[in-house]
Amino acid sequence: MTLGFDDLDHEKFMRLALKEAELALQEGERPIGAIVVHNGQVISRGRAQHRRRNSEIAHAELNALMDAHAYVRANLHECAIYTTVEPCVMCLGAIVMSDVPHVVFALADKWIRSVEMLKIDYVRRHIKHYIGGVLHAESVALWEKADPRELRILREGRL
C-alpha cells in the first residue's frame, strides 16, 4: 500500500529528526536533525556536522539528502524531508533540486527566511507542502540547552 503525504504521522517522523538533533548536540554541533521518508519508511538520516567535518555546508538536510540520493532519484516527487529547523536557502535549494516535494520542520528560521523562496515560481512548482511548527517546543528545548543566543536570532530574525 502506498502512503500519501497526508497519511504520514508527522509527529512520529519529527521525533526521529529530533533524535538526530540530540545526537548532533551531544557531538558539540548545532542541534539540527533531518530524515528523509518515503511511503512511511525512513530512507536516511542526517544531522549537523559542521565542526566534525570542518565544513559550513555539512547541514543536516544536505547530509540526509546525500545519504539518500540514489533512492530519492529513483522515487522522484514522492519523498518527504523532516527537519528540526526550517531549511536554510542552500538546503531548500537542494531539496528543490532533489525533487523532494514535502518539507516539514519544527522551528521556523526567521533570520534566514527561506519561506521567501516559495515566492519563486520554480521553487513553488517543486514544493507541494511546506509545513512548520511540528513539535516546535521540543526543538526550542534543544536550542535552549545548546545556544539560547542563537535561538533568539532564529525566533526573532535579528541579532
Can you describe this structure?
The model has no long low-confidence stretch (mean pLDDT 96). The protein has a five-stranded mixed sheet with strand order 2-1-3-4-5. The chain is α/β, with parallel strands linked by helices and 159 residues long. The chain is built from eight helices and five strands. The longest helix has 17 residues, at 10-26.
Topology, please?
Blueprint: H1 10-26, E1 33-38, E2 41-47, H2 50-53, H3 60-67, H4 69-74, E3 79-85, H5 89-97, E4 102-107, H6 121-126, E5 129-131, H7 136-146, H8 148-156
Parallel strand pairs: 3-4, 4-5
Antiparallel strand pairs: 1-2, 1-3
Helix pairs in contact: 1-7, 7-8
Euclidean distance between termini CA atoms: 48 Å
Radius of gyration: 14 Å
**General form:** globular
Count the helices. How many?
8
Residue share in helices?
40-55%
Major sheet = 5 strands, mixed
Average pLDDT number: 96
Total strand segments: 5
Element order: H for helix, E for strand: HEEHHHEHEHEHH
Q: How much strand?
A: 15-25%
The secondary-structure class comes to alpha/beta
Strand order of the largest sheet: 2-1-3-4-5
Outline the low-pLDDT stretches. Answer: none
